[in-house]
Write a structure and sequence with these properties.
Belongs to the short-chain dehydrogenases/reductases (SDR) family. This is Ketoreductase domain-containing protein. GO terms for molecular function: estradiol 17-beta-dehydrogenase [NAD(P)+] activity. The chain is of the alpha/beta class. It has a single domain, classed as NAD(P)-binding Rossmann-like Domain (Rossmann fold), CATH 3.40.50.720. About 45% of the residues lie in helices and about 15% in strands. It has a 6-stranded parallel beta sheet with strand order 3-2-1-4-7-8, sandwiched between helices. A two-stranded antiparallel ribbon has the order 5-6. Helix 2 links the parallel strand 2 and strand 3. Helix 4 runs parallel beside helix 5.
Length: about 220
């Protein structure tokens, strides 16, 4: 791994921090000297993960689409660690559904499509807009920065595969809103960037891969 400078004294909040890329981010922040708050669903393993990482980590049960939940998480970061310097948006969901299922003569569920868009795009934006006010309370560093926001898109934003209409649209939306948000917040001393990882061994992607492989096998038989 890269040898990053010490992050001692900084505080990060990580959505989806109970597993996968989010958990790895939390672990790395703490390893580099920062404190971290895990924002994840109440049903997640967030509480156990936070306990395993010690006193520099806390868990805030959070639905990223809920204003109240996100504000409660920010309050926890403020009361326990003194504020927020870093926001990493990793929370996201995916479905494996074709636009139209010819055999079943059934279109993609609009409800499923809207849910993915709501969690992945609106949820990400909700965390961005609410955490901005908290970071503006920080004293600027020597470069004039008060905080940084890192969003997670995906290679699917640029090269979506069969059954990824909803997921690709949601990740493309994150890419699309990054530049205008960065331009909004740059004068305030907050940097905004988005990463677009390739394939990761995450549970929802394993599920997606399994479903699509099963679908292809079944289609070859009938």
């Amino acid at each position: 791994m890269a040898n990053l400078r010490s992050l001692k004294g900084l505080v990060g909040i990580v959505t989806g921090g109970a597993s996968g890329l989010g958990r790895a981010t939390v672990e790395r922040l703490i390893r580099q000297g920062a404190s971290a708050v895990i924002l994840d669903l109440p049903s997640s393993d967030g509480n156990n993960v936070a306990k395993s990482l010690g006193e520099k980590c806390a868990f805030a049960p959070t639905d990223v689409t809920s204003e109240a939940d996100v504000n409660n998480a920010l309050e926890l970061a403020r009361s326990k660690f003194g504020g927020v310097n870093v926001v990493v948006n990793c929370a996201g969901i995916a479905v494996a559904i074709k636009t139209y299922n010819k055999n079943k003569q059934k279109p993609h569920s609009l409800e499923d499509f809207q849910k993915v868009i709501n969690v992945n795009i609106a949820g990400t934006f909700n965390v961005i807009r609410l955490s901005t006010g908290e970071m503006l309370k920080n004293e600027p560093d020597k470069d004039g920065h008060k905080g940084v926001i890192v969003n997670t898109a995906s290679i699917a934003a640029f090269d979506g595969q069969v059954g990824q209409a909803a997921y690709s649209a949601s990740k493309g939306g994150i890419v699309g809103m990054t530049l205008p948000i960065a331009r909004d917040l740059a004068p305030l001393g907050i940097r905004v960037v988005t990463i677009a990882p390739g394939t990761l061994v995450l549970m929802h992607l394993i599920y997606f891969s399994f479903i699509m492989r099963l679908y292809n096998v079944l289609m070859s038989l009938f």
